Amino acid sequence: MIEAIGLTKRYGNTVAVDNLSFTVAPGRVTGFLGPNGAGKSTTMRMILGLDRPSSGKVLIDGKPYGSLDRPLRTVGALLDAKWVHPNRSAKAHLQWLAKTNGLPSRRVDEVLDLVGLTKVAKRRAGGFSLGMSQRLGIAGALLGDPKVLLFDEPVNGLDPEGILWIRQFMQGLAAEGRTVLVSSHLLSEMALTATDLVVIGRGRLISQSSTTEFVERSTENTVRVRSPHADKLGALLVDKGFTVREDTDTSLTVSGATSDQIGDIAASAGVVLHELSPQRGSLEEAFMQLTGDSVEYHAAETGK
Amino acid sequence: MTLLAVERIKLFTTRSPWWCMLLALFLTIGLTAVIAANWNNAPMPVLGAVYTHTFGLYVIMVMAALAVTTEYRFGTIKATFLAVPDRVSPLIAKAVVVALLAGLVGEAVGFGSWAASWLLADDNSQLALTTANDWRHVAGVGLVYAAGAVLALGVGALVRQTAGAVSIVLVFALVLESVVGLIPNIGDDIQKWMPFTVASKFIFGDPDASGMPDGAGPPVVGELSPWGSFGYFAAISLAVFIISLVVVKKRDA
C-alpha cells in the first residue's frame, strides 16, 4: 500500500508535483498515467526517498521510505534499467545489491533465473540489449521479494515480445497480493495492464479510479459540431459549463454535453449547424482530452 | 560490516581501480628505479627513494574520485541509496574501503621504491632505515595516500562528475599550489598552508642530516612538525569529506 498525501515538489519557480494525493492498493496493478513531463518520475523518486518533497509526504505501509529497515525487502523499484555499471557483470551487480540488505547470494541466482538471465549472468551488463537490461532491472527489484513494486515506464522502447512479457509479469506479481505501481505515458498500454489508474497532468491529480471507469467516463460525451458560427456557439457552450475544444474555425469538439443539449442551445441562439455527431473517442483521444491543457510542452499546432 | 563488503565488491568488480593501482605502482617504483640506477658519485639518501610518491598520489586520488563519480555517472548511487536510504553509511563504508586500499598501495609504493633504490643504487649505505625519520619518509606514503583518497572521494561526491572532480583535484594540487607562491608578499605565507605542500612536509620534512642529498636545497618549509603536517592534511581531507556527506544527505539523489 502506497499513500501520497499532499505531495509537492518545486524546483525554483517550477512546480513539478502539485499537492498530489492518491493511494495504491495491494493485489492489483495500478497504472500511473500522465503525459511526458507530468511529474510521474519525480513522484516515484519521492516515494522512494531519492528526492525530498517540498511539502507533503508519502508513506509505504504507513512509513516513509527512509525509515524502512532494509528497504529492498519491502519495496522493489525499477526506475531506470541503465542504473548498472556497464563493466560489471549482471551477477556482480545483483550481488552487491543483495549484500546491502543482507540477502543471501542464493537469491541472486533465483532472480536471475526468474527473469531468464542465468545464461548471461557473467556477461558485462554494458553489452546488454534494452530488453535484457530491463530484465536485469526487474531482477534487482525482485531481490528482496518485496510486497511493493514500482516500475517507471518499464515498456519504453521494448519490442512487442518484451512488452507482453513485462505486462504478464506485473500482473503475476499483483496476483500474488503485491502492490504494483507502473508509470506510463501510454493509455493504451495501461488499459491492457492496469486495473486501477492514477492519472496526473502538470503535477496535479486528474483522476483516480478503476481503468474501466476511467475509460468509460472519458470516452463518452464527446460531440463533434460543425457550424459556420462555431466561435459564437463555442462561447455559449462554455457559458453553460461544457468543455469545448476548437478543432478548426468551423468545428468544435464538445465534452460533457449530449448532442440533444447542444442542438437545443444552437437552436435557441439561432446558430446554424452543419454537423452534430456524438463521438466515441479512442482511448488516446480521451487521455488527450483529460490531460490536454496539462501537457507541459505543446507541439505548435499546424494548419492554422 | 556488510556495507564494507558491498563497497569492496563494487570497487573490485570494475576495471578502473585495478588500472589506477597498477599505474600508481608503475609510475612511482619505475621512476625511482631509473633515478636510483643513475645515482652516481654519492650515497643515495632515503628521501631520494620516495621523491616520486606524489605521482602515485595523484593517480590514487583519481581512483578515489572515480569510485564515487562513476556511481553518479551510471546511476548506481541511486540504487545504493534505495538499498540504504540513510546515504551516509554507504559513503563512509566507501571511504573506509578506498582509504584502506590507498594506504596499502601507498605502503607498496613507499617500500617498493625504497627496495628498488636499495637494489639499483651504486652506494646504498645511507638507505638503511635506521631512525624514526627514515621510517616516516617511507611508511608515511601510505598515510598520505589514504588521506588524499578521502579528500578526493569528498570532492567527487560534491561535484558528481568525473571530469570535474579530477580536474579540481589535479589543478589544485599541480597548478594552484605552486602558482599561489607567485603572489607578491603574501604568496609564500599562503603556500605554506596549502594542503599538498603541507602533506609533502610530512614525507620530506626534518630529514636526518646524513639523509640530505647534496645540493637538494633547504628541506621543505612549513610551520608545523612533520606529524603536525600530516594531522593538518588529514583534517582538511576529513573536513571536505564530511561536507560532502552533509550535502549528499540533503541533496536530491
What does the secondary structure layout of this molecule look like, with pairings?
The complex is a heterodimer of chains A (304) and B (253).
Chain A: E1 2-11, E2 14-24, E3 28-33, H1 40-47, E4 55-60, E5 75-78, H2 90-100, H3 105-114, H4 130-142, E6 148-152, H5 160-175, E7 179-184, H6 187-193, E8 196-201, E9 204-210, H7 211-219, E10 222-226, H8 230-239, E11 243-248, E12 251-255, H9 259-269, E13 275-279, H10 283-291
Parallel strand pairs in A: 3-7, 3-8, 5-6, 6-7
Antiparallel strand pairs in A: 1-2, 1-4, 8-9, 10-12, 10-13, 11-12
Helix pairs in contact in A: 2-3, 3-4
Chain B: H1 2-12, H2 16-37, H3 46-50, H4 53-74, H5 76-83, H6 88-120, H7 132-159, H8 162-179, H9 187-191, H10 195-204, H11 226-250
Structural features:
heterodimer; A: 304 residues; alpha/beta; Rossmann fold; Alpha-Beta Plaits; 2 domains; six-stranded mixed β-sheet; four-stranded antiparallel β-sheet; 10 helices; elongated; B: 253 residues; mainly alpha; 74% helix; 0% strand; globular
Notes on the protein architecture:
The complex is a heterodimer of chains A (304) and B (253). Chain A has 304 residues and is of the alpha/beta class. Chain A has helices at residues 40-47, 90-100, 105-114, 130-142, 160-175, 187-193, 211-219, 230-239, 259-269, 283-291, and strands at residues 2-11, 14-24, 28-33, 55-60, 75-78, 148-152, 179-184, 196-201, 204-210, 222-226, 243-248, 251-255, 275-279. Chain A folds into two domains: 2-217, Rossmann fold, CATH 3.40.50; 221-279, Alpha-Beta Plaits (2-Layer Sandwich), CATH 3.30.70. In chain A, helix 2 (90-100) crosses helix 3 and helix 3 crosses helix 4 (130-142). In chain A, 43% of the residues are buried. The model of chain A has no long low-confidence stretch (mean pLDDT 88). Chain B has 253 residues and is mainly alpha-helical. Chain B is built from eleven helices and no strands. Chain B starts with a helix and ends with a helix. The A-B interface holds A 45, 48-52, 65-66, 68, 71-72, 75, 77, 79-80, 82-89, 92, 95-97, 99-102, 140 and B 2-3, 5-6, 9-10, 13-15, 70-71, 74-76, 78-86, 90, 250, 252-253.
